[in-house]
Design goal:
The chain has helices spanning 8-12, 14-40, 47-56, 58-64, 67-87, 92-112, 115-127, 130-147, 150-171, 178-190, 198-227. It has a domain at 8-43 and 70-113 and 148-227. The protein is an all-alpha fold.
């Protein structure tokens, strides 16, 4: 229900809210495409298979190496800033810690993704002699081993912390619906178990997609209204 118009601060940040709403809409599409690709073309499990796929189909190879997940994380950085801007007055500690955790998580993820490094290795592997291919394969195996290593685990844990902090902040304010806070909290709890943690991690990661997608949709709708200057709960 419309209860009035946003104040000067809301109007000043309208471009950020509008951008966030559009980017979150893009994120929903990205999530759907990621799931479809994962189901239709399960990603390889070895460096040799990745190199072979990148040579035969570079685009599918990059998508199998979470190229779209990289895009999603760049969108996350904007979302963290937008949430901080909107909630910082009512929950300064929670949102400050959430912003720091979230941005550090994004910063940790970007170098953890070896997509373009493996693409370069695939090109070299295709033209190298037997000895050169062995060396390139070894480099590829090192990249794949680090794909879900320390940097990725740091990203995953920090992202879960950021989500939980922002979800609690949402529940403590009247700027967003309580439903969005609860959906965000559910997604954050499911993300506490990192996805590389075997079968349990995979199950939790897949399960988190449902509340996370609902959370994103609710935030997109809310930021769209904020960009229009409509102060509703």
């Amino acid at each position: 229900m419309e209860v009035g118009r946003a104040g000067p601060d809301g109007n000043a940040w309208a471009p950020l809210y509008r951008l966030t709403a559009w980017l979150l809409a893009v994120m929903v599409v990205v999530i759907a495409v990621q799931i479809a690709i994962y189901v239709a073309w399960p990603p390889p499990t070895t460096a040799a298979a990745y190199l072979e796929l990148l040579t035969a189909n570079p685009l599918l190879g990059l998508l199998s190496l979470d190229l779209l997940y990289l895009v999603q994380n760049l969108i996350l950085a904007v979302l963290y800033v937008a949430l901080f801007v909107r909630l910082r007055t009512d929950a300064p500690t929670l949102t400050s810690l959430g912003l720091v955790s979230g941005l550090l998580g994004v910063a940790a993820y970007i170098p953890s993704n070896p997509a373009f490094e493996l693409l370069d290795l695939a090109g070299a592997h295709a033209t190298a002699d037997a000895e050169g291919r062995a060396a390139i394969l070894g480099a590829g195996e090192a990249l794949v081993a680090g794909y879900t290593g320390t940097a990725f685990l740091v990203y995953y844990v920090l992202s879960a912390i950021a989500l939980l902090l922002f979800a609690v902040a949402i529940l403590r304010t009247a700027h967003f619906s309580r439903a969005s806070g609860w959906w965000g909290l559910a997604a954050g709890i499911l993300m506490v178990v990192p996805s590389p943690a075997g079968v349990v991690g995979t199950v939790f990661a897949l399960a988190s997609l449902v509340p996370w997608t609902v959370f994103v949709v609710l935030l997109a709708l809310r930021f769209r209204r904020l960009a229009a200057g409509i102060a509703t709960v």
